[in-house]
Amino acid sequence: MSKEISSPYAQFRDFKALYVTDISSLSWCEQQFHYSLHAGGRTETTEMKAGSDIHLKLELEVHDLVKVSIETSEDLWGLKLFNLLFGLEALRTTGETRELPVFGFVSDIFVFGIIDQIKKFPNQGIRKNNDWEWRICDTKTRSKCFRPKKSTVPSSVKYQIMLYKKLFDNLVESSIEEERIFEVLDLDADKSFSKKFSKYIKIYFSNFKKLNTLRKLMAFIKNYFGFFWKSNNVLEVNYKYQGDGSDLGSLYFEYEEDMLDKHLKRSIIYWKGDREPEGVPIEEAWKCQICEYVENCEWRLKKVREIEQR
Ligand code: SF4
């Protein structure tokens, strides 16, 4: 099997899209991520379920959720784009949105993600033309009822939110490469959405009922981004207590483009199968104590052997 065909990208993502977390999670432990891919993903723990419930509750505070029927791949991506449009409209009119889809290319791979929250706040006098700044925020839930120290925000969380910002800012700058997207995702941009899906669009997106193909919808979204500008360089992690969903406060950190780009480069090389995954360095061996693969981890066994032979 050629390296390209056997790459994680081909094997587990079918040469289509990577999620933002497929890239950010690698910074915790690549070997662990690799094992979980082969195991079919992580099993949902009680903590993960509690986290999802809190995210859903927060989303319902800013908009309703409706079930929509889809029939084709074009419907599926149409729905994602309508969610984006709906979210942008909420952001423009109310100053806040949640679960906003974003996408773009990293190297030549299409990447898709959903931003937990974007909210506006008064600008600090840096911009002349806009009264507001956009802040990107991700919510994390904790089993402990206090906020962690700033130094303990994991790099995986930082990469996740920084990549959201990069994708959002690129969309704002009208750099949507729609033809490339349609090609990679194997979508017919001029095929009308199915009757079933169109029926929902007319009910829930009555303003947008003429947008009956991906090409028209994408062109409209490109224009709509003209109402926005790049997000603020300060990014936010907001913490909620898993016990009762109460707010534990936020931590803030600066966007670092160089740091993100280095991580993106390394991650894409892994996904394309051009290098093996790496486990944690010795200074981060504590991560192995809470890792489900610790018993049989080849990386760890190799490191233990190296230490014994010294
Ligand atoms: Fe990574 Fe350690 Fe787990 Fe191995 S045991 S996958 S090195 S965290």
From TrEMBL:
Gene3D superfamilies: 3.90.320.10. This is 514_t:CDS:1. One of its GO terms (cellular component) is nucleus. Belongs to the EXO5 family. One of its GO terms (biological process) is interstrand cross-link repair. InterPro entries: EXOV, PDDEXK-like_dom_sf. GO terms for molecular function: single-stranded DNA 5'-3' DNA exonuclease activity. It holds the Pfam family Exo5. It comes from Diversispora eburnea.
